[in-house]
């Protein structure tokens, strides 16, 4: 099984990765070790997940070279100013027990976000080689555009919720034009795709599963990566095999016709998504 790569001037990452929230401790370490054993080479964690030590330990126990694994972490939104952001990242690297991460994201935009100073902190971390690329998560289009146009740090990635029930076409038009990868989180809609009659019908036609159909739909889009979370090796293997499922034009049309306004991750501190 070959996982396709996204490649830009700023970063190169497997388009199917592995989400780790909300796994913790030994269970998280076991799940990441299993995922790496099955062939995942892109792992998503964050300060807020409380599992960076477990993720780092799994990478260190895997026997893989550090440069064989693409590792993303994120600094939480309660550090909206450059110095705090930098200190937050120092602690991430300590917990991960890694010399660097491949991608460092701002996890959410705080209402108090001092964007230039946080971007300057990211640029400095890049220059130090402690992150190989930087980007943002949960930024609406206007704020993403501001981050790119500031030209303080080169934005390699936007991570946002994106699945068969939530279109991100407006963001995708921009990220594609800019060569930014759009990483889709909650890609199997937290399991909500499993009982969908349209998705089940497509899955049956291909001898596949609903989760595989949901992931193949994302992977059919240029410039998109997906990071499903699955605790068990069986589901991890199933999701990995979505890279081999090719949807036809009828499938894509049926999936495109599903309602696209269902947002599942919308905490009180979320930005105005239309901004
Ligand atoms: N940047 C952000 O703000 C942000 C926000 C949310 C998530 N994320 C990242 O994105 C990752 C994925 O998002 P998510 O965990 O919210 O949602 P998700 O990956 O869409 O869904 C995870 C849920 O779906 C189940 N599942 C996965 N594969 C399945 C399969 N093949 N068959 C049946 N059920 C399956 C999992 O089951 P099990 O219980 O068996 O594992 C889990 O309950 C997170 O782990 C995290 O790394 C980032």
Describe the structure.
Pfam families: Aldo_ket_red (PF00248). InterPro entries: AKR, Aldo/ket_reductase_CS, NAD(P)_OxRdtase_dom_sf, NADP_OxRdtase_dom. Keywords: NADP, Oxidoreductase. The protein has a domain of 184 residues: Alpha-Beta Barrel (TIM Barrel), CATH 3.20.20. It is built from ten helices and ten strands. The strands form two sheets. Strands 3-4-5-6-7-8-9-10 form an eight-stranded parallel beta sheet. Strands 1-2 form a two-stranded antiparallel ribbon. Helix 1 crosses helix 2 and helix 7 packs across helix 8. The longest helix is centred in the N-terminal third of the chain and has 15 residues. It binds NADP nicotinamide-adenine-dinucleotide phosphate. The site of NADP nicotinamide-adenine-dinucleotide phosphate (NAP) has 27 residues, from helix 9.
The CA-CA distance between the termini, in Å, is: 40 Å
| Overall geometry | globular
SSE-based structural type: alpha/beta
- Unreliable segments of 5+ consecutive residues: none
- Order of SSEs: EEEHEHEHEHEHEHEHHEHH
**Mean of all residue-level pLDDT scores:** 98
CATH C-level name of the domain at 13-186 and 221-230 = Alpha Beta
In the CATH hierarchy, what is the superfamily of the domain at 13-186 and 221-230?
NADP-dependent oxidoreductase domain
Protein name: Aldo/keto reductase
InterPro entries: AKR (IPR020471), Aldo/ket_reductase_CS (IPR018170), NAD(P)_OxRdtase_dom_sf (IPR036812), NADP_OxRdtase_dom (IPR023210)
Family: Belongs to the aldo/keto reductase family.
Binding site for substrate: 107
């Amino acid at each position: 099984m070959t996982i396709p790569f996204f490649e830009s001037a700023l970063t190169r990452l497997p388009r199917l990765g592995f989400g780790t929230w909300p796994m913790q401790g030994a269970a998280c370490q076991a799940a990441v070790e299993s995922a790496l054993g099955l062939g995942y080479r892109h792992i998503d964690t964050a300060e807020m997940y409380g599992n960076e030590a477990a993720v780092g330990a799994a990478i260190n126990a895997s026997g893989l070279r550090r440069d064989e694994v693409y590792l993303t972490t994120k600094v939480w939104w309660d550090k909206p100013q450059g110095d705090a952001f930098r200190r937050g990242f120092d602690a991430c690297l300590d917990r991960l027990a890694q010399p660097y991460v491949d991608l460092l994201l701002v996890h959410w935009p705080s209402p108090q976000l001092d964007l230039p100073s946080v971007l300057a902190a990211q640029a400095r971390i890049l220059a130090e080689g402690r992150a190989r690329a930087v980007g943002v998560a949960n930024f609406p289009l206007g704020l993403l555009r501001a981050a790119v146009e500031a030209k303080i740090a080169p934005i390699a990635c936007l991570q946002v919720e994106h699945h068969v029930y939530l279109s991100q076409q407006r963001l995708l038009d921009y990220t594609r034009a800019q060569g930014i990868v759009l990483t889709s989180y909650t890609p199997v809609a937290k399991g909500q795709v499993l009982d969908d009659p349209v998705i089940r019908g497509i899955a049956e036609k291909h001898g596949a599963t609903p989760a595989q159909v949901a992931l193949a739909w994302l992977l059919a889009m240029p410039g998109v990566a997906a990071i499903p979370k699955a605790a068990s090796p069986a589901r991890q293997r199933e999701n990995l095999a979505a890279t081999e499922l090719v949807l036809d034009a009828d499938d894509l049309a049926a999936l495109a016709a599903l309602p696209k306004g269902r947002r599942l991750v919308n905490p009180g501190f979320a930005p105005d998504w239309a901004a």
